Amino acid sequence: MIYLCLGYFEPEIMDARPKAEIDAVMRECQPHLAEFYKSGQVMMDAGLDLEAKCLRWVNGEVMVTDGPFIETKELIGSAFLIEAEDMEEAIRIASLHPTTQVSAGEEFGWGIEIRPIHYFEKREQKH
């Protein structure tokens, strides 16, 4: 099964820190990312920009509004796909991610949400 993992953070806390401190934390993430990728079960890993748009059907037309849209002080900063047999294995793999390995993550409000993906339509990969 495929799992979508969303990485959260609190931007106000991270933005209040000096760039050198944030850079040091990001360097601390690198060995953990290497272990995470080495699992062989990471299908895709990407950081997300803060710019977002929301499309909704309203009164017979598509409305576009600015985002982000979650009702919390946390924002989604990354997304990754992993392949796992079940949720227990998905948790084990996601726990290799720096979000749960770097101690500064607690201070910055880092967290991961894991959701199974149920395909409506699956496109075959091109080789």
Q: How would you explain this protein's 3D organization?
A:
The protein has a single domain (2-116), classed as Dimeric alpha+beta barrel (Alpha-Beta Plaits). Helices cover 32% and strands 32% of the residues. It is built from 5 helices and 6 strands. It is flat and about 50 Å long. The mean pLDDT is 87.
Estimate nothing, just give the exact number of structural domains. Answer: 1
Report low-confidence residues grouped into runs of 5 or more. none
Helix fraction by DSSP (H/I, runs of at least 4): 25-40%
The biggest sheet amounts to: 4 strands, antiparallel
Number of helices: 5
Mean pLDDT: 87
Name of the CATH architecture: 2-Layer Sandwich
- The CATH C-level class name: Alpha Beta
The radius of gyration over CA amounts to 17 Å
Strand order of the largest sheet: 2-5-1-6
* Count of distinct strands: 6
CATH topology: Alpha-Beta Plaits
Structural class: alpha+beta
According to CATH, the homologous superfamily is Dimeric alpha+beta barrel
Distance between the termini: 21 Å
Order of helices and strands: EHHEEEEHHHE
| Spatial shape | flat
Strand content: 25-35%
